[in-house]
Amino acid sequence: MVIEVSAGLIFRDRRLLIAQRPPGSHLAGTWEFPGGKRERGESWEDCLRRELREELDFDANVVRFYQEVVHDYEERRVCLRFFLVRVQSGEPRPVGCAALNWVTAAGLAGFKFPPADAVLLHRLQQDRQLWAD
What we know:
Blueprint: E1 2-12, E2 15-20, E3 31-32, E4 35-37, H1 44-56, E5 58-72, E6 77-90, E7 99-103, H2 118-126
Parallel strand pairs: 1-6
Antiparallel strand pairs: 1-2, 1-4, 2-3, 2-7, 5-6
């Protein structure tokens, strides 16, 4: 079984928004890039807009695709598609997650992320242009 997840990379003032997975969820307590599972018939972009509205209470402008990662966990395979996103209206707040944090490139190393995010984390730390806005 493959679980398809759409996630957002949301930059503001040279910081990136990360969310902490809630208690009781798969990989609870780890940090991730906000988003969620794609529903049948839903586009990746529509999924991301819906998830950000439901979990972080803001309307998003999905700017462009950034990277796809496929990762095998012991019990499941996940296909993650990451998109660059801008806040269109509202202000992100932790509605469906345990906490939010705006982090710098150097600060990413201080947070525990799921194994599936390792390749993306490396690329983000190398891609200084993303952090310049």
